[in-house]
Amino acid sequence: MIINSRFFNRSELIGFIVLAAVLFVILPLSLDVFRLNLVAKYLTYAFVALGLVLCWGYGGILSLGQGVFFGLGGYCMAMFLKLEASSVENTKIQSTPGIPDFMDWNQITSLPLFWQPFHSLTFTILAIILVPGLFALIIGTAMFKRRVGGTYFAIITQAVAAILTILIVGQQGYTGGINGMTDLRTLKGWDIRPDHAKVILYFVEVVLLFACIGIAQFIRLTKLGRILVAMREQEDRVRFSGYSVANFKIFAFCMAAVFAAIGGAMFALNVGFMSPSFVGIVPSIEMVIYTAVGGRMSIFGAIWGAILVNFAKTSLSESFPQLWLFGLGALFIAVVLAFPNGLSGLWADYVQPRIDRLFASRKRKPGWNDNSVADGAPAE
Amino acid sequence: MSDEPNKGLLSPLRRKLLMGMAAVPAITMLPRASFAQAPATSAVNTTGLAVTDTEVTVGILHSATGTMAISETGSIEAEKLAIEQINAAGGVLGRKIKFIQEDGASDWPTFAEKAKKLLVNDKVAAIMGCWTSASRKAVLPVMEQYNGMLYYPTFYEGLEQSKNVIYTGQEATQQILAGLNWIAKEKGAKSFFFIGSDYIWPRTSNKIARKHVENVLKGKVVGEEYYPLGNTQFNSVINKIKLTKPDVIFTDVVGGSNVAFYKQLKAAGIDLSKQALLTISVTEDEIDGIGGENIAGAYACMKYFQSLDNPNNKAFVPAFKKAWGEKTVIGDVTQAAYLGPWLWKLTVEKAGSFDVDKIAAASPGVEFKGAPEGYVRIHENHHLWSKTRVGRAKLDGQFELIYETADLVEPDPFPKGYQ
Fold first, then answer.
1. Which of A310, A312, A309 lies closest to A320 in space, CA to CA?
2. Interface test with A, best of B77, B113, B164 (most A CBs within 10 A)
3. Keyword annotations for this protein (chain A) (predicted)?
4. Of B42, B77, B116, B147, which is the most exposed, with the fewest CB atoms less than 10 Å away?
5. pTM given for the model
């Protein structure tokens, strides 16, 4: 494996430092716990956006079903938390104490078999990674081995999102239906609801996010990342060069799924809630929008996209409860029309040259800009 | 009005000024009269709620956007009207009500987020809000954790009771049992066919209805079918109805599905003037979409109809239309939403405090004689005593009152023998 001599180039290093400073220092110091918890919620989408950068921005695979993986991760976590919240003494008033409340409403009298392993936290953590990962592997293998790609793949992922929503809503005795799983309380006896727990969860999430950024950046810099980009630009040439295009696509898709699932699990922990409204078509498309607004070619751009779009959502809806959706729609249209490469494109076009000029007088090290090929916009 | 010149008089800054300038004779001439009737803020608000000497802030939390907006708009309008009327009548404990409206956007976690924002950031004294059970389930843990007070307007499935919620709509037994008794007696009905949307409220309601039909009325349920929310194809179930020929079709289909259901029923030649149909999910609001000609003759079991003939309602309906337009219709939930701010005001005055704990404790027994539905009283279990009424849909989209229970029906969110 060939890794560049430097993990980040200069502009990425600036991006990294800015993001780290904002998330680790500035926001925790300047926001109250309620707002910090909202940021934690926004960041759960940043995981999804990060996955989409790998899979869509670099690999060229547009998935309109990331909500599926976000949801699977979230539901795995929520099932564990719900079981813990449904102890016998908490559910005394039910006809069958000791099972989640929605099961009781639906006349289910014992815990279903597939719920049993979620008593174990270790199993749950493994499931958060493996269930969505395996599911993505199955979809990816079925599609990419048959060379289904592009629009068809996007449509199929969207269909999967629709199917999973219908399944969750329809099987309400096992999943909580449209209400979702609410009233999640403790993690191994540790109450996740009070303020200090929210702060701790926020930092855990930020650390995880940076770990995922590290993994994504590592993938990007290896030969694997180069092949992904090459595949996006000229799939046939890569295939003729002897690479198994399908395997690389499956890998990128699985990585994106696992990132999304980690986001989903953190969502369940931070918000104390999981419902099918994060699984379906609309949230899946929203996740693509975050990435597009931030810039699908840029890891940091996509993360900022997720944070800023969600921030705009909250603040617009607080200020204009009846009109905010129009404002948000206008914002998307403006961004896509004016800056097709998103906010990171804006940065690359207007801010970066100035910074470069600032550094221009200094001596250039050879190779600092090696990634310029990978960073470029697609040819189409 | 007389409060205006005193705005901010007791703010900390002003108090310091007062102490520092005690010698200046002019200060002592500032008017203080209006505080005579309004108790001091420190006495009525010991938990740091958004209460000043002249104002108290409450939250309104409904979906102004998304699929539920069509249903929840009526509730928003009713709550704003109630607040306006209370302010015109002098406010609560001498304070005007100010409201902060948040949009739940038909999205349950957004409801939870906004409820938290209202409680933690805005420190609202109470929240009027939620509509669907799902949104209430999402908001409930937030209300309990931050000790808020929610006034929830929708008729719902029961199986819930909280110190932090006042349920101003009916729980399932209040809505269903009297209606079933009436139709069994009036029509001699023995066989029932249940059709519902597939989520917790219809399922729980039908469970209660089935137990009542089988155990109390000694009748039979000949079919029970559920369709996903938003479903528009009811042909197969209509064929089953034609085959089983039930005495009564009992429906709790919600939202837009209703439009398709009643149109297809009519197209299939089922005449609602001959085939008895009892719905617990169609109010004047839904008929607006269904069209009176498609549903005329059906019976609805509610606690309020716009056409109710009592002095309170005769004042309420014109006031509502004056505020929100001649064409607006008022459904059961809209009326229940209107009760929220009034019940809260009466409870605050009974408790002599805005503190949530005191309001929760003072709520049982609070009665509202000005309710458009007649008279309501809060039960120990935080639900309302109210009458059950059966109305028959007319061509013009209104209901004609056919039957009402003689007495208020006791709310029973955890009905024994129906679980």
1. A312
2. B113
3. Cell membrane, Membrane, Transmembrane, Transmembrane helix
4. B42
5. 0.81
